[in-house]
Design goal:
single chain, mainly alpha, two-stranded parallel ribbon, 40% helix
């Protein structure tokens, strides 16, 4: 069982842990980020989950502010990247290019371990 203490901040950004932990039972988390603040909250949650869980999980960000989380989320605790080798007519444009992910990881070696 996972026990996490959680305080809702006055800004109302925080996602209730009950929702997140219920979703983790399937080990896939998907949450929209339509503002920069929500994007940062997703990064914070990813980091907290890495500390709290002993199981691999995939946390996907959607919405208009998803790119940063998709690029560095696995360095903060997500189990994997979902990316494409090129953008063709069948590629999902919200997934980063493999070459871009590789470049980001090479420039953040202290997060890539």
């Amino acid at each position: 069982m996972v026990a996490i203490s959680f305080t809702v901040r006055p800004s109302g950004l925080a996602t209730p842990w009950s929702v997140i932990l219920r979703t983790i039972s399937g080990r896939i988390i998907s949450q929209a980020a339509d503002t920069e603040a929500q994007q940062l909250e997703n990064l914070r949650i990813t980091s907290l989950l890495k500390e709290a869980l002993d199981v691999p999980y995939l946390f996907l960000s959607g919405g208009s502010h998803y790119a940063l989380h998709r690029m560095i989320g696995p360095m903060l605790g997500c189990v994997m990247y979902l990316c494409v080798t090129e953008y063709d007519e069948l590629a999902t444009k919200s997934q980063p290019l493999l070459a871009d992910v590789r470049a980001v990881r090479q420039h953040f070696p202290y997060l890539s371990k």
